[in-house]
Amino acid sequence: MHERSLPASPNWYCSRCSDVNGSGLLGVGAKNIIFLIDVSASSCRVTGELVGHRDLVSGFSFCQHPGQSHICVSSSNDGTVRFWDSDSKVLIREQAAHQNSVSAVHWSPVDKNLVVSGDEKGIVVCHWYHTGDTASFFPEPRTIFCISCSPHTWSSVAVGYKDGMIVLIDVSKKGEVTHRLRGHEDEIHSLAWSPVLGDDAVCSRLEDIEATSGASAAEEKSCYLASGSKDQTLRIWNSARGKSVMTLKLPYLKKRGSAVDPGVKERLWLHVHWPKGRPTQLVSSCFGGEMVMWDLTRTGKQRWALFGASSEGQNHSRIVFNMSAVLLQDDRELLISTSMDREIKCWDLASLDCCWTLPTLGGFVYALRFSPVGTGCLALGVGDNMIRVWNTLTTQNQYDTRTFWQGIKSKVTALAWHPKKEGSLSFGTDDGKVGIYEVFSNRPPQISSSYHKKTVYTLAWGPPVPPMSFGAAGGKPSLSLYSCAGEGVILQHDPAKLSGDASDIDKLIRDTNSIRHKLSPHTDLSWKPDGKVVAIGNEDGCVEVYAAPSLRLLCSIQQHHKIINALQWHPDLDAPPELSCLLASGSSNATVYVHDLRAVIENPPECPAVLTEPYRRLCGHTSKITGISWSPHHEARLVTVSYDGTAQVWDVLPEAAVSNYRGHVGYLLCVDWSPVDPDVIWTGGKDFTLQEWRVSKQEFTKPPKGKKMVDLKEKMKSNFKQKKKNKKAPGGGGATPPPAANGEHVAGGGKPAAAEQELSGEDEGDGDGVGSTQSPVPPMAAFDSQRKSFSAVKSKDKPELNPLKKKKPRSMLPISTAMDHRPKEELLQDCITLASVRHGSEPPARCVPGQGEHIHLGLFSDRQALYRMFEAEEEGHVEAGHYNSVVYLRLWTGDLEGALQLAVEKGELSDHLLSIAPMAGFSAWSRAVEAFVKQLCQQQQYLKAASHLLSLSRLHEAVGLLRDHKLYREAIALVKARLPADEPVLKELYSCWAAALEKDGHFSAAAKCYLAAGASFDAAKVIARKNDVPSLRTAAGLARISGEVALARSLALRCAKDLVAAQDWITAQEVLSSQESLLVHRLHFCVAELMTAPGAPWASPNELRLQDRVRDAWETRFGVSRSSVGHRAAAALLEELKLAESPTPTASIPLRQVRLHSALHLTRAVLSWLLGDDGQLVKELWRAAAGLRDAGHFHVSAELCRGLFPDGDVAVLSRKHSKVLRHTEEEPAAAAQSLQAFVHYHRLYERWWSDSARVRGAAPHPAADAADEAEGDGVGAVADDASEDGVGPASGERLDFDASALLSERHAASQAARRSVGEIQERLAAMVLKHGRAQGGQLDPGENEADAQSSASGEPADGQGSADAGQRPEAPETLLSLSAKMTEHQKRLADLPDTIKMFPHPDVVECCLVLLHLGQSSPPSVSESLQQKAKDLLRRYGTEASASKASQRFLP
Asked: Taking the model in full, what pTM does it have?
């Protein structure tokens, strides 16, 4: 599905998580997916994935037997072992024989059906591939780290454990232990068998080999096993005798320019690989990513050789976890290695040089951007705290990637190339940092001194706005860097002086636009390529467009109602002017809207415009939009990515879905179009991969829905986040270290630390998680405890419920107390010694009570002896960490200040100590309280800490403490109880609490906080965020009561529109009635109700014309008439209604919305009637009927015409009010003629359907079906119906309208010219396509080259051609002749009056055919003169193929 891709990083701390088969297919476990990579000596390519595990992949192995090498097996922390077919990439079988996480798996090199696996509890399971059977063994109650099957004996298996033990078992004898290999002191990371059985060349050089003796040794040939351990040694064992015969100590390799890391042991993973056919050579990893080739026949420094020593930079930079080898057909042996540095390298074992490097990704791909200056230079922002810059156009190394990590300590979430300066790349991170890298230099990045408080979402380069006043003069840059982050703030950075403070553009927006209320938090921004305007997306779903440099608000787009995630202007690269101002926006409501802002930008309004209707809407995604990219190669094509896991390519103008890509597992986060190939798109997302794919090669065109979407979600669920495990290891064993998913922290005990939370709420491996498992080698007692604990678990016996014994309190004087438990003789001697001290003149020799071996006598001697005893006891308590006991000892001696000081230093202050602290004085008590407050804060006891601050009369500090830890309710209660009502901090607390509540979705509570803070505008806005009818109605009422008139008007109108969409007309009028300024919208909705539900009980009788009923309703219900004044005056209402939007109708707009737009025009028409403006009246009536017709609603348009003009005469507007229309101006007259023609057109079809029904003896056609016939089939439908009916009985009635209005020759000429232009365009396109196919050698079968050549020249292959007016041309048509005809027809169209184009008539040819058909079926109905006129028009303009065919029976 994809061309090139960067896969996820291989899992860390696994003994065998990658393997390669004989055909060069590499399998690598990354997260819970196995990536399949086709490797060769020169390159590699990701060919597919094996998806299905529910947790991290811990092991992977291919079957190395001929004919079965495409079969592989994998193990996982989810406790399953799965068999896969790597060719078809399908699951063959899943086995769940383990009850715990599986830590190792290996396919036997001898038996093609045997697979052995082990889990963290020590269970070994044999799986038989051909039968599906399993057998479980329990050789040792230890944690298994690695397993290796012998390449010589099928039943011999080596198992390495966490505590350094290696066990050889015989699986043919129920897992019987044949040897226990002891010698390593720490974890066994890897095991490798010698490829040759009993090699004498190795035996002759083994250092510790013993002479073979005994019959058993003579009968069994030696086989050697190599092991690598965390104790920094490799050992080679004789499997026949179970003894170590060689020990290799890892060399310390000092890198150039760096010293040996003293903690290098902690970063060690020692993997060993014994290459096939090389029994005297062994490959191992080393400390810092180096790889070493050992020569077992040599000694000293000549024993090993370093990989990649021929040139610098070939080695891995971090520790290596796995190695696997493959022998190519040219006898060249390759070694594949995976490392913590997130790179997969291929090595030539003959030269020890690196062949190629495949970069991998250790986090979500948050951002990808192509450089606008350096063609093909792609930058990636990844969640593993690194930036990758990939030269995608290089031919020598297709993965030519550079990595940047300096100065980055968090996930890279945003990128932006400088539009003019090559190599200048700005980046934003998860921790709010903004910086600029010069990617073609080795300098560290420049970091802005202004940090965001939350994640940086977007970066953009744009022209500077005040207060930054730098320009191109003086060599200073003319562009600023803008950053938008999660706290809703946009900062402007000076790229020439990032150390200076960045400016918040909100202040400029407020000052320029006189805004006093709180601005909605910003979530995205996009500068137009020409730098004149900037679009800013907000959290409430609003998109605001500002003019630079003053940032004056031009318009507000209120189409989205959820947070804006993506904004993108049309690139404006050689695009037509009508496309240069297109803005695409995506939010969390899964719909992409495209807005045409050309009118607003070119002619800025005096007051900011409010747009509620999009230019185009792109529907298809099923989850929120995360990224948008316009094509730089097409006029109006863009690609979007979404949380539904797909990327969608759209053709914007027809709102058509072009292609859908489904190659990712999980949601997508970023997308960009290739700058060099119009068919190539790059995407990245949650699955840690970057993928390149072609639009033309995708199977699907739209995102999945229904069952397809369910299947895709099931696929995405398999990539769920790893659950944190918190199990304690019994005894000295411990749990198996789960493999680290592409870089998750692995702490002591081998368990991954909690991964950092993603922006989306998912877990992801982050950063340089380093560590390993550590545990001392347990003695036999530990072994027994392990065995007992496992037996208890295995037998599932219930634990004994022994009653808890009362815990004895710890002694304050443990040392002296222990002296009382000596032998009896010594205790008796103490009595003699004490008597001599108390009653003798001199103490016994070397006897100092309270010190040394007589410490316990200090309790029975004088005070000085007691103090000496206390000093010794204090030292013992300090060593044991019992600082609380030391404090009490000092209290007993009266050293209260010393006791408090020690308690403060050790964090052992308590309420008791604080209660006695005043005894040491006020200053000592104050210091103790301050220290206790800090201690309580560290213990997260913030309420208690605030209470103690009150005891120091630090009320404001207490309030600040509660506020900083989001205890807003308590902080507000404290302020209101202790401070005046006008205290500024109270308003600040309400505002902070409101922001927190709003973020959590508690909108009602947030509104109450805003009201208490005096921010009524914000209160109304936050309630409206729910976007349902009750919330909008409440918000409008709140804004009206608070005096926010403009906001109340906007919210009431939104609520009313939602009610109208649900056809709740009464409630909609009630909502609008509260706002007098919304009277014109009440009139609009009244008209819409009359059009939709003409039988309303409050309306006038249906016998009246629609416009008369509208006037009556307005006068009785709203008091609007010709004589109204003030805000009810028709002129004021019409002027206000002109600001309402009326988009061009298309077939994609729903009928209810089209009807609402038509009602808008009818409202304007009635208001024009009240003003006496007949010209505007008839034009608005024409627009009301034309909008329904152009949107494809023929039946609704006919109903409207019947309601407006029941007698068919558009000149008679109203008989009730005696209104007749007479037009002297050209445009109104043309509009009236066009409207009259369409009224007659509808009546003509009604007559035709009624006559056809009489002929057939059936009921008339339904109007909707007839509309489909008339508009969908066009002339063809008329011809078919005419040919079927023939000449039947006549109805005998003449037409009751003047049909000559339908036979306008000027409109017929215009329509014929347009048809001719369309036909010539089709022929030109076919000619160009056929010529291109002939040049490319892609002719269809049966099509010869002569045909293509004749098409290229415009000459038909059969010698026949088509003429413009139905005549056969004398000369063959060429590209020039067709172009000349095109020019001629276009000139004819240009010469026609503009009114012909503005107000078109129905299809004249179609009307001629219908009239001639009626003339034959009902002769009296159509006059002879009218029929003759129709025939003349058919002869002149009915030259189209379908029209010519239909007119044959009417023309001689």
From this structure: 0.62
